[in-house]
Structures are given as C-alpha cells and as structure tokens.
Design a protein that fits this description.
The complex is a heterodimer of chains A (232) and B (210). With 232 residues, chain A is mostly helical. Chain A contains nine helices and no strands. Chain A is globular, with a radius of gyration of 17 Å. Chain B has 210 residues and is mainly alpha-helical. Chain B is built from seven helices and no strands. The two termini of chain B are 33 Å apart. Classes of the chains: A mainly alpha (232), B mainly alpha (210). The interface between A and B is large, with 57 and 57 residues.
C-alpha cells in the first residue's frame, strides 16, 4: 500500500486509463449477480477470494485493460445507474445500522459511524427521490449479513465498503447522461471518498491507497465484492 | 455549446449551478483578469474562444483545475518550510506529491485536448505555524472539492470527466485527512457543495502575488 502511494508509474497508469475508463457493463449483470452467481466474471480477479478487494487495487482488473469504449455512455441508462447506486447505499446503510447495534464501538468512533450511517441514509433518500422523479421504480433493499466480530475487523470491512463505494461512483460518473444526476452523483462521490479516507485512517491504512489518482471500479468488480454480504 | 439551466432535483439537499458556456468563459476570464491584471484577459478570452470550436471548452475547465493544483502544490511546498510536527510534515509531503502529480496529468490532458496550459503564478500564503497551515489547508482542499464538483458536469469529453473524477476523489480524501488532523468531523455534510469557477478564482486571488 505504501509503495502504491509513491508509485511513480501512477500517472502513466492514470493516463493510460483516460480513453479506456468506460466499462461495458449493463445493469442486467448486476441483477444476475445479485441473484447468486454472475456468468460474467471478467472483471473479477478471483472468485470467492476475500482479497478481491476493488478498493485496494482494482487497477489490475479489467477496467484498466479493456478496449477503449468509443461511447462509454452507450448502453446504460441513468435509472439503471441510480438503481445500482441506491443498492450500494442500502447496503452501506444496513452495514452501519448493524455495526451500531453490535455494540462494538463507543465514544468518538461510534460517533463517526453514526454520522456516516446518517450520510448513507441521506444519499439513499436523494437517490430514491431522483429515481421516482425520473419515473423509475425504487428497488427493494437487499437482505444483508455482515461479519461483525471485532473492532479491527469491522473497521477494515467499513474501509473496504467505503473505498468500494467511492470507486463505484467514480466508475459510473462519465456514463451518466443527465447533468443533474451527474451533479448529484458527484456530490455523493466525494462524501464517500471522505468516509473512505477516514475509515482507512481508523483502520491504520493509507488514506489514499491508490496514490494521486483514484481508480474507478466497474459494476462487475463491485458486485463481486458485495455479493458475499447479500443473503439470497 | 450551451445548455439550459438545469432543473434542480426535488430534494433541496444539493445545489446545482447552471450556466451557459459563454457566461462560464466570460466569468472566468473576468476573474482571471482580476488575478493577473486586465492585460491578460484579451489573450485568455481569445484562447478560450479558439479552443471552444475544437474541444468544446474542456481545456478551459482543465486550466481552471490546473490553476488550483498549482496553488495547492505550492502551498504544501511553502508549508514544509515551517516548523511542523512529524505528522503534519508527513501530511504536507504526501498531499503535495499528489498535487504535483495532478499538475503533470492536467498539463498532459490539456495537451490532449489541444489547449495551452496556463502558466504557474507566484503564490504567497499567510501561514506561520502548524495551526495556520492546517486551517488554510482545510480551506484550500474544501474549495478544491467544490470547484471540481462544480465544473465537472460541464465537461464534455467522457474521458476528461473520468480523469477529473479520479482527481477530485483524492481532493476529497485530502480534505478528510486534514480534518482528521484537526480533530474535526471529516464529512460535515452528506452532500459536498459545488462552486462555480468565478467565486473560486476570487477566493484564491489573495494568494496570488504575480
């Protein structure tokens, strides 16, 4: 992680991604993955590997090497992206609620966790309102289960979820068609980034594990990661 | 290349600024005129108009971002001349290195879209110790986040937008890092604000010497 932070090739990697950052995923993959098992594992590094963490180094995944997409906005609607974002916020909100209930935290750390949980709730509500406004249907919250056994473990998991959340928003930003939806997504994206940096610090990890340029994650990468928390 | 004033989403939690590209360029030109002296405005506007035909003005936004990154990078450089604790010095070193990487990337991107990178001004910051460093660092990083978030929806190229996103996420992490150092809540609002270019350029004007 420390090495990545100072990786001199970081900018080169960043620039090589410009022009190829778009991913070809469609929301159908998301639904398929949530149903238990994706037939499109292109974006994952290793199925079932708990280290397949889109948060730490997704640069090695398909997003960085995929052929440049001539039109990254092709194929995915804003409603689909909003639904995807909402599902992630539902997952995060459920996580924080469970963490608070676990009684593992007190004092300042509990305060931070409660605050972040409220932020996710606010994100979720704005996304729901936006989906309704665009005439879409609000997806039901997934049933979730998180391994909450120790403070250290929870902080690490929280950091993974938030880094994943930030990477997920980043991965969709340039596929959003509406400027209003984009502005909303961006205003959430940087709050997820704040959460991620904070939790990294609390977990003893570098706040910018990817160095000067955050790495986006594709829907497949995120779904591979979150699938383990979704109860079928 | 203009677009209608966007509708504000039903939730008032977020403020979205709409503006035409013409107004965008004019306002930033005026602000830059105020910064560099009116002599610079003619060149700036001429350049912006010339670029507008080819690149749709993404070069303008990239140059705006570049100006902010110059400011931040030099701020951390100057901060490291102060007598800082090991923790604060490490923070200034790490964040400064990121800002320098952002500068290099933005210059490359401006080249890609056929623009001309703006020159680096000379800066002066009212920082004398660790407390004043952290306080101003917080202001600058928060401004950076809002500036990128405000400008990004006007970026036309999906590739440039993705690149800006990769940078703004780091600015947001920096803002949180500084708030950690200050013992403050790291995400004071559920939605980060966005700022237009003109008020940002006005806000940073006092730090520009030449």
């Amino acid at each position: 992680m420390e090495e990545l932070d100072r990786d001199p090739s970081s900018r080169k990697r960043f620039l090589s991604m410009v022009g190829g950052a778009g991913t070809a995923t469609v929301f159908a993959t998301f639904l398929a993955a949530c149903g238990g098992g994706s037939d499109d594992d292109e974006g994952s590094t290793a199925g079932g590997d708990s280290g397949a963490d889109p948060t730490a180094n997704p640069a090695g995944g398909a997003a960085a090497t995929r052929e440049p997409n001539p039109d990254p906005k092709e194929g995915t609607t804003d409603l689909e992206i909003l639904g995807y974002a909402l599902s992630l916020e539902q997952l995060e909100a459920a996580f924080y609620a469970d963490v608070i209930e676990s009684g593992l935290f007190t004092g300042a750390d509990l305060g931070t966790i409660k605050q972040f949980g409220e932020d996710e709730q606010d994100h979720l509500e704005l996304l729901e309102a936006t989906i309704k406004k665009l005439g879409g249907e609000v997806p039901a919250a997934p049933k979730t289960k998180f391994p909450l056994t120790s403070q250290a473990g929870v902080l690490k998991l929280a950091s993974e979820l938030e880094n994943g959340g930030a990477a997920a928003y980043l991965g969709q930003a340039n596929r959003i068609r509406s400027k209003e939806v984009l502005a909303a997504a961006l205003s959430i994206h940087t709050v997820e980034a704040r959460h991620a940096a904070t939790l990294n610090s609390l977990a003893g990890l570098p706040p910018e594990p990817q160095g000067a340029f955050a790495v986006p994650a594709s829907m497949e990468q995120i779904l591979t990661f979150v699938q383990r928390f979704i109860v079928p | 290349m203009t677009y209608a004033n966007p509708r504000v989403p039903e939730s008032n939690a977020i403020e979205i600024h709409g503006f035409t590209r013409g107004a965008f360029i004019l306002r930033s030109a005026l602000a830059v005129g105020a910064v560099y002296g009116t002599g610079a405005v003619g060149t700036f506007v001429g350049q912006a108009v010339a670029q507008d035909g080819e690149s749709g003005g993404d070069a303008e936004i990239l140059n705006f971002a570049l100006s902010l990154e110059y400011l931040e990078a030099d701020f951390y450089r100057q901060a490291l001349e102060l007598d800082l604790s090991a923790e604060a010095a490490a923070l200034a070193t790490r964040l400064g290195a990121h800002e320098r990487d952002h500068i290099a990337a933005l210059i490359d991107l401006i080249d890609v879209v056929g623009g001309t990178p703006t020159r680096e001004p000379t800066f002066s910051f009212p920082i004398t110790d660790e407390a004043s460093f952290l306080e101003l660092a917080q202001t600058l990083e928060e401004t950076g986040v809002s500036a990128y978030n405000g400008a990004a929806p006007s970026i036309e190229s999906p590739e440039i937008l993705a690149a800006a996103g990769q940078i703004v996420q780091i600015e947001a992490r920096h803002a949180a890092d500084i708030r950690v150092a200050l013992g403050q809540p790291t995400a004071p609002k559920p939605f980060d604000e966005s700022l237009e270019m003109a008020p940002v350029l006005e806000a940073v004007q006092p730090f520009i010497k030449a």
